[in-house]
Every structure is written in C-alpha cells, then in structure tokens.
C-alpha cells in the first residue's frame, strides 16, 4: 500500500506522521484520507500540490499510486 | 533520458530568432502599440503611506477640456472575496482590486487611487492635479519589527493570523505563520561541537526590469475587447482582468508584446484593468505607461526580510542541525514568499534535523511580487552566511564543508519529498576546480562561496506547429519569451524533426490563437513549453508518416523518419515534398502539444565572489566572479550562460547597493535608477559561467530550468567576501559604502 507522509502542519490535523492507504489513484486517496481524518478537509488537500515518489504535481487528479509509492502534500510553489 | 546522446541542433549556439528586430529597434514593446482615436490614461497616486480616504472630488478634473473618463474602485463591476490565479501563484480578488485602485484606504506611498483618460498625456496629468482628496493620515509601519509590535497600527481590520493553533480574535499585521520540521533539531544541536547563530536583514529590492509596465486597451461594446501589454503571462492577464471586469474569457484578447525584462515582476496586473475601464467609459482605445517613479513606488518589489539562523556542526564538519526564523514583508497585502523561503533555506544540505518557522507580515509598502526564485535568496543568504562562518571557525574549506553535507539524489527535503537526481555535488566540484578558486587573494580582498537551490516548476503549456507547403514550419507557443525561449523552442523542434532550426519560426501566440499556457516564470518555459514543442513535433512526424504511407500504399508503422525524411525500403520523401502534396493527402499538417508538464528538475547553483574593499570609504569592488549551475541539458548554451550571468549580476546588486529608502513617514526617497543603484557593466568583471549538465530524467532532453537559482548565491557569496576582506561579520544588506564603513567604524 502507498504511504502518505504528513508535514508538521497536516500532522496537527491528523495526529499521525504517516499512514498507509489502499487507494491506487490520487482522487480516491483524498477521499480515503478525508474519511479517515475528520479534521482534514477535501478543500485543504486539493489546494495543495502533491509529490508522488519525488515528482511534484501541482494539480493532481488521476495520478496513479503504486504499492510502494511515497506521497507528500506540499504547498504550491510559484516562481518568478 | 538523454545522458549519452549526441544532438545535432541542441547545444548549438544558433542565431536568436528575435535578435534582428531587437538590435534594429523594430521590436514592439508594451508602449509601442498605438490605435486610431487612442487617448492616454494616467494614475493618481497616494502621497501618504497610510491613510483613510475621506472624500474624493473629481468635479474640476471632469470639467477640464479633453478629459474623457475617470476610473475608480467603484468601476469594478463586482469584486468577490475569492482567490484567482494571477500568474505565478494566486491572489485574493479583493486585495488585487484594492491594489489596482484603492477602495477607501491607501496603504503605501504611490498606491493608485483613480485614473483619468484624456486626449493627451499632458491633459491627463493636468487633470490629476485638479482632483481633490481629503485624507485622514495614519501612522505607517515600514518594517516587520514595527508591524509585529503589540501596539502597531493595523493595516487591515479583517486580517487574523492564519497558521496558528487557534485563529486569533484580534486583527494584526501578521498574515500567516508557516512551520516546517524534520528530525529533532534540539537533539541535533546537542550533538554539535560548534553552534553559530546570527540575525540578518535584507532590504526591499526591485527586479529592475528596464521596460516599465505599459499597455494599450480597446474595449469594444460588441464584446471583442483587446489588451496589448508587456507581461510574463498574457493568459493570466486575461484571467485576472476578465474576472475583475466580469467578462467571459472569449470576450477579451490579450496580446503579449515583446518584453524588456520581468524577473517575476510582470506576473500580475496593475494598469491593464484600469485601461480597459477607461476605454469602456470613453469609447476610445487607451494607452497607459508607468514612468520609472511609478514602477518603483507602485509595482511589486521583492520582500525585505529579517531572518535568524542557527546551525550546529561537529568538529569534523558534519552539520547536525539547522534552524531558522524568517520574517518576510508582504507589502500592503498578504502574500509574501516566506513559505518558499522556509522550503529552500536549508535544502542544499543533507542534514537530518531541521526546523524553520516563517511569518508573512504586511507593512505600508507596495505589495511584493515575485522576484526570481521568490523568497529563496533572502533565506538562503542567511543560511549560507552561517555555513561559511562554520567553515571558517572549523578551519575547513567552505566548498569541502558543503561537499561533506551536500544534498544529493535521495536526500530528504524539509518540504516533503526526497530529491531525485540533482547536480549540487557536480557544481561544488566545478567551482572548486575553477580558475578563480586557484587565485590567491591580496590585502583587503576577500572570497565568498555560496550555494543556492530552487525547485523549478512545470505546468500547462500549449503549442501548435503549423507546417507550410514548402516544408518549413511555424511554432506557435503561448509562453512570452523573456529569456530566449524562442531559440530554445526552435532548437528542440529542429532536433525532433531533424531539420535545420532556421526552417522553424517560433512566435508567441495571443490568447485567441493558441490554447491556455501558464506564464513564463518558475524557470518553467524551456522545460514545460519545450515538452509541448516536442509533443507537437512528434505529432507532425506521426502525420508525415501517415501521409507517406498513404502515398506508398503502406501502413504508417512501416514508415521510418529521420533527418527530415520519411523512408521505407527504396521509398523516400522529404518533409518539403510531403507538405507540398499535403492538399492531396488530407490537408495541411499541424502538430499539437497541449500538456501539463510534470517532473521539473531542481537546479542547484554555486557561486564564487572575490572582492576588494576600500576601508577608508567602504566601497566594494568585485574582482572576480564565477557562477556554476546545473542546467540538466543546455539547449542553447549562450542563453543559459546569460541566465547565469544575469542572475549573478542581479544578486550582486542586491548584495552591494540596492535598497528601497523610506523616510520615517513612509515616503520612498530613491525611486529612480540614479538613486536606486543597480550594477552597471562598468561596475563588474566578466562573470565566468560554468554550465554543469546532470540530466533531468523527466525531460526528453534532460532539461532543468535555469532562470532562478542563479540569483540565490550572490547575496551570501558577495557579502561573505566583504566580511572576509574587512575581517568583520556582515549581517545586513546592502554592503553599500556607508553600511560597510559603519561596520568598520563600529568595530574600530
């Protein structure tokens, strides 16, 4: 199962540093996380970028998660 | 991945496709568009840094002959409290509107209040002087320390600090708090033999683009309005302007002019919605141009910051813990790049224990805008200065110390993911082997080393590649070319199609003739738009094969393509032959590439700076400078070198001279290039640029963006060189003659 690792900011809402998820697609993962952690809102997660196996994705939806995928939510990065 | 591949066109120094127009003065910039019946718009700006607007009387201005329209905040049809995409990020729509034209309170010297459209610029200017405004002047706050004080005047009564355990009930100037942590920083410090901590200050600085903001707008009652403007992202201009004026996107065409510099500062809107309002009210096209004074006072500079950094290391040079407290000025409205400062400050280091806390603070200065690697130079300046001090105190070469602790593939970052393949070690080794590093220093001279990290981003890019009947092609991209991207697109298409670059003409499409593309920024264009070009070229190749297959009575999978020809057995056709007969095989050929690019590879940079300081005057001369950076693959090496050199020069200016100077009542006192001192060519030696190529595995040619990392190291490289030359610690920028002299005299 893929592993989600929470930032310090999200850890305050989940109480966990990491969790395993059974979803195999980003969209389903968000649903799974929101159901597991009531303090997490879908809007909060969807406003964040995500890094799946080190690749930062700004606007994810259908990205696949592998058995050993590592997922991090992070803030949107803007450049100049 | 392309590591060992030899390219025919990529990596060559082709002639830039926009060069002739620019050197002959034929290129059309933001101020160069004129239309029949056009009038001029001018902005009335606040003389106060902080004041309530009690009343506005425009009667006399309206009565002046030649005045055709006046625009104010009330002319925005509807402004909701919502977030909109504004180029390199997002903005609150209310804040955006309030920054463009103040509603009932002015928040900085130069804040726009209203605009007047008149037959001539002189009449518009005269009319501004006839507007009568009554203010209630308030005390300004001009620094994060003042703004965060318990009794500080509050800019926004409805701003409550976000990011705390509980949202406060009392409004303050602290918009948000961020926190990033990894490992156990206290345990890390307990392991250390040496701990160094210091406070640093960096001033408000401007991007210093040579071309001021300018636009021409034509509002058409039939719903086909047009904006011509100097911007890094014309689709974002369309989105913001349409939202502010309640227009459907297909009712507004935005054309990106040639652009004379942006560096992040042209990723939002200032004049464009106002010009369109004036055009709507007057029934005439409207041109608006900021002068330099306005650019300094009222466009978005880079944040001033006050940052504290603490680093612990063992005697052998192993860094055990890194901690920072960052305070960034946002200007008048929330949204400084402090979060990026938090995320980048320590990323060049593979250290298990890190903690960074950041605050976004509003002050009575113009709302900050992106500036090349926004947020990173300030935070990494503080971190790199302390790393250098640690190296000195431990008696370890500063490059060796960095090599010992360098981030590499697999290093855990404080912001989440582990790094993929990166080239910091290669950059450090190249710097160590550079001719400059072998040079001996003389009396009153010093050397500084610094590293820099920037993420780089991908995002949406759209390209069409229209093939002509003679086999040449036109690449229509949606990314304004601010750093030579047309040449890069040309070379990547040439490589993919196996045909000479000069046969492929790159142009920037307007918002109607190419699909949405994110703005040029975040060092994304060569990476992301390049991928769209490659996809479009591959689409063309696919069609060329299909057409050839039809002619030869074969299937497309039986056709090969190379060097501008299709072939199968003895059959062979050039691109020109296929395109010449396209009308008989299904019509003209157009390739499309519409992508949302993922996998942008971070770029690390390492800079060396040698300076000499005149201890009697405090004047600093840069003697030698080397900029090393990982480009992944340099598509056009001359442009990459230019990015490295340009970043270095801007960063040197930030380190040595550039700063906004404000009076106690919040008036900006140096709004011009005579008093705001950017480096001149005569100030600096040739910047030696060394390109390192560690391919980005997620780009077909290995590209990494190079536009931003180069501005990060110069602050610390230069300031630490000054510190070495005078034998005293430097903490506050700029290292201008009076500031350096003060450090020397205070320690005499």
Main features:
heterodimer; A: 80 residues; alpha+beta; Ubiquitin-like (UB roll); five-stranded mixed β-sheet; 3 helices; globular; B: 748 residues; Aldehyde Oxidoreductase, domain 4; Aldehyde Oxidoreductase, domain 3; seven-stranded mixed β-sheet; 21 helices; 28 strands
How would you describe the overall organization of this protein?
The complex is a heterodimer of chains A (80) and B (748). By secondary structure, chain A is α+β, with helices and mostly antiparallel strands. In chain A, β3 (49-52) and β4 (55-57) form a beta hairpin. Chain A starts with a strand and ends in a 6-residue tail after the last strand. Chain A has three helices and five strands. Chain B is of the alpha+beta class. Chain B is globular and about 85 Å long. In chain B, strands 3-7-1-14-11-12-13 form a seven-stranded mixed beta sheet. A five-stranded mixed beta sheet of chain B has the order 9-17-16-15-10, sandwiched between helices. In chain B, α10 packs parallel to α11. Chain B folds into three domains: 19-26 and 458-597, Aldehyde Oxidoreductase, domain 4 (2-Layer Sandwich), CATH 3.30.365; 33-138 and 221-260 and 266-289, Aldehyde oxidase/xanthine dehydrogenase, a/b hammerhead (Aldehyde Oxidoreductase, domain 3); 305-456 and 601-746, Aldehyde Oxidoreductase, domain 4 (2-Layer Sandwich). Chain B has 21 helices and 28 strands. Chain A binds chain B through residues 5, 7-9, 12, 51, 53-59, 70, 72-80, and chain B through 88-90, 163, 165, 178-181, 207, 263-265, 267, 337, 339-340, 343, 369-374, 415-420, 454-459, 521-524, 596, 598-600, 698, 705, 707-708.
């Amino acid at each position: 199962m893929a592993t989600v690792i929470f930032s310090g900011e999200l850890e305050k809402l989940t109480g966990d540093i990491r969790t395993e998820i059974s979803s195999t697609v980003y969209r389903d993962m968000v649903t799974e996380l929101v159901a597991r952690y009531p303090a997490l809102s879908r809007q909060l997660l969807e406003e964040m970028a995500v890094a799946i196996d080190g690749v930062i994705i700004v606007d994810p939806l259908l990205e696949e998660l592998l058995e050993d995928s590592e997922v991090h939510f992070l803030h949107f990065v803007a450049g100049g | 991945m392309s590591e060992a591949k030899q390219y025919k066109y990529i990596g060559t120094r082709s002639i830039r496709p926009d060069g002739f127009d620019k050197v002959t003065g034929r290129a059309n910039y933001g101020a160069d568009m004129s239309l029949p019946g056009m009038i001029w718009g001018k902005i009335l700006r606040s003389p106060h840094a902080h004041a309530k607007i009690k009343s506005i009387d425009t009667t006399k201005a309206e009565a002046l002959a030649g005045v055709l329209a006046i625009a104010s905040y009330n002319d925005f049809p509807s402004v909701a409290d919502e977030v909109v995409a504004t180029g390199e990020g997002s903005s609150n729509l209310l804040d955006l509107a309030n920054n463009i034209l103040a509603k009932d309170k002015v928040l900085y010297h130069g804040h726009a209040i209203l605009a007047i459209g008149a037959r001539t610029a002189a009449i518009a200017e005269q009319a501004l002087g006839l507007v009568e405004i009554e203010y209630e002047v308030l005390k300004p706050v001009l620094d994060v320390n003042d703004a965060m004080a318990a009794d500080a005047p509050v800019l926004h009564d409805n701003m409550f600090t976000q990011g705390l355990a509980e949202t406060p009930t009392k409004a303050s100037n602290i918009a948000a708090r961020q926190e990033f942590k990894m490992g156990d920083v206290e345990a890390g410090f307990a392991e250390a033999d040496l701990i160094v901590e210091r406070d640093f200050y960096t001033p408000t600085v401007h991007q210093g683009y040579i071309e001021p903001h300018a636009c021409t707008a034509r509002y058409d009652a039939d719903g086909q309005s047009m904006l011509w403007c100097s911007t890094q992202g014309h689709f974002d201009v369309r989105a913001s302007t349409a939202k502010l004026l309640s227009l459907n996107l297909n009712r507004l065409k935005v054309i990106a002019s040639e652009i004379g510099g942006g560096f992040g500062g042209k990723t939002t809107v200032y004049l464009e919605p106002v010009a369109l309002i004036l055009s709507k009210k007057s029934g005439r096209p409207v041109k608006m141009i900021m002068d330099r004074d306005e650019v300094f006072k009222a466009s978005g500079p880079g944040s001033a910051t006050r940052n504290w950094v603490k680093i612990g290391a063992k005697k052998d040079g192993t860094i055990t813990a890194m901690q920072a407290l960052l305070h960034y000025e946002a200007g008048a409205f929330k949204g400084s790049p402090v979060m990026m400062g938090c995320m980048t400050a320590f990323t060049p280091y593979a250290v298990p224990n890190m903690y960074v806390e950041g605050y976004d603070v509003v002050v009575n200065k113009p709302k900050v805008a992106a500036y090349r690697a926004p947020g990173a130079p300030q935070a990494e300046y503080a971190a790199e200065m302390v790393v250098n001090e640690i190296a000195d105190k431990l008696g370890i070469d500063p490059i060796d110390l960095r090599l010992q602790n360098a981030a590499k593939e697999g290093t855990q970052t404080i912001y989440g993911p582990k790094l993929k393949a990166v080239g910091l070690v290669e950059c450090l080794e190249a710097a160590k082997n550079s001719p400059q590093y072998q040079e001996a220093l003389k009396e009153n001279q010093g050397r500084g080393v610094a590293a820099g990290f920037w993420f780089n981003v991908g995002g949406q890019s759209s390209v069409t590649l229209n093939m002509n009947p003679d086999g040449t092609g036109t690449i229509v991209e949606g990314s304004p070319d601010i750093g030579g991207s047309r040449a890069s697109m040309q070379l990547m298409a040439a490589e993919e199609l196996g045909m000479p670059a000069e046969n492929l003409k790159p142009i920037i499409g307007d918002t109607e003739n190419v699909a949405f593309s994110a703005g040029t920024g975040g060092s994304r264009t060569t990476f992301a738009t390049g991928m769209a070009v490659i996809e479009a070229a591959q689409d063309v190749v696919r069609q060329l094969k299909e057409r050839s297959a039809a002619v030869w009575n074969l299937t497309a999978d039986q056709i090969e393509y190379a060097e501008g020809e299709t072939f199968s057995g003895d059959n062979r056709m050039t691109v020109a032959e296929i395109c010449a007969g396209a009308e008989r095989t299904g019509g003209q050929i157009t390739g499309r590439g519409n992508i949302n690019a993922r996998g942008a590879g971070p770029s690390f940079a390492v800079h060396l700076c040698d300076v000499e300081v005149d201890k009697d005057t405090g004047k600093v001369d840069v003697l030698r400078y080397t900029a090393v950076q990982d480009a992944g693959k340099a598509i056009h090496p001359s442009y990459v070198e230019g990015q490295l050199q340009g970043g270095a020069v801007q960063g040197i200016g930030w380190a040595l001279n550039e700063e906004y100077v404000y009076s106690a009542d919040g008036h900006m006192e140096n709004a011009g290039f005579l008093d705001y001192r950017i480096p001149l060519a005569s100030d600096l030696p040739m910047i030696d640029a060394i390109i390192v190529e560690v391919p980005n595995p997620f780009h077909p040619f290995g590209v990494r963006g190079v536009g931003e990392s180069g501005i990060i190291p110069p602050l610390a490289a230069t300031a630490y060189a000054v510190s070495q030359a005078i034998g005293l610690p430097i903490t506050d920028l700029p290292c201008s003659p009076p500031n350096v002299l003060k450090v020397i005299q205070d320690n005499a």
